[in-house]
Each structure stands twice: as structure tokens, then as C-alpha cells.
Amino acid sequence: MNDPTTEGYAATPAEIEGMLRNLCAYALSEPDPMQRYVELTHQQVLFQGMVEAIRRERGRALADLLVAGMPAAQVAAKTNLATEPKVRKLVSSAGEAERVKAAARPAKATKAAKAAKAAKAAPAKKEPEPLPPHLAAPSGKRVLTPADLEALGLSPKKRAAKKATPAKQAATTAAGTESAAGKGSAVGKAVQPKGQKSAS
Q1: Which of 16, 24, 195, 197 is most exposed by smallest CB count within 10 Å?
Q2: What is the pTM (predicted TM-score) of this model?
């Protein structure tokens, strides 16, 4: 039976005879004619199935060309199929029509679908939790609590004590000076001779 999709290809009698001897050597060597007939009939059915399997593989090869981006017209010209319907027929017989159609869809749609899938798969970003009221001012800046200041050695009591120290020192110094002056005056009065009056 001639296959219209194999036009342009031919096998010589010598090639066919050589293949027969290679693949059917066991059946051809059977001495019993009846058994030889049975064996060769089985081989014929087997090879007819192989013909259909080879046809499907040819269709898959054409589908790979189309998926790779080769136009159907160019595929038909380079494979001696001559027409695009023959190309589609072989591709369909191999069960590859849907794969070829999917590859022919716009690339943008495929990219958009991939982006949407990636967006669904990506985990949602968690927003940072707000600071407690005692740590956050309306401006969003952190405000140190008395406990924080004390932990840093900057408690309000210590800061006030540090600020008051210079004033206390000045007051203490002044008081000491006045006290010393008073004592000096008293001593001067005490050592004055009895016969002299004080200038004051």
C-alpha cells in the first residue's frame, strides 16, 4: 500500500531483500514449511505494526520542527511532503496537534500566565508591627522611658543632680570664704593689746 506521505522516497529490491534476511533469518531458516509459514505471517503482522509506529515517530519529528519555530510551509518543502495538509495529517496521527497549537500561541500570553503563577506562589509580605504607645511618638520616633534612661545611666534624678552640682559647689565655696573671713576678724580682735582701741 502506497503512503502519500512517503512520496519521493523509494527502496530498492536489494535493500528490501537485505532487510528481510536480517530481520527474518530465524523464520526463513525453519525447515518445516507449515511452521515457516506461521513464523513469517507473524513477522509480517509485526512489521505492519512497526510501519504504523514509524509513521507516528515521523509525525513527532514534524511536531518538534513546528514547535521550534519552523513555518509549516517550510517544513512541507524540506521534507518532500509538498503541502501543509500532509504535514498536519502526520502531526495529528502522532497525537501532537495540541502541543503544536499551544506553541503557536502568543509568547506574551505565556509570559503573563507565568507572572501570574509566580505572583500566586510568592508569599505575602508581612507589614512591620507598630511599636507600643510608650515607645512611639506621633512622629514615629522612639521615646526613651524613665526605665530606659535609668538603664543607660541617664535617669532624670542623676541628670538633675549633675546639673545642680556646680551651683552647690559655688555656694559652698562662698560660704566657706565668708566663714573664714569672719573667723579672721574675730582672731584680730582677740589679739589686740589692751591699751589700744580698735580703729573701728
Answers
A1: 195
A2: 0.50
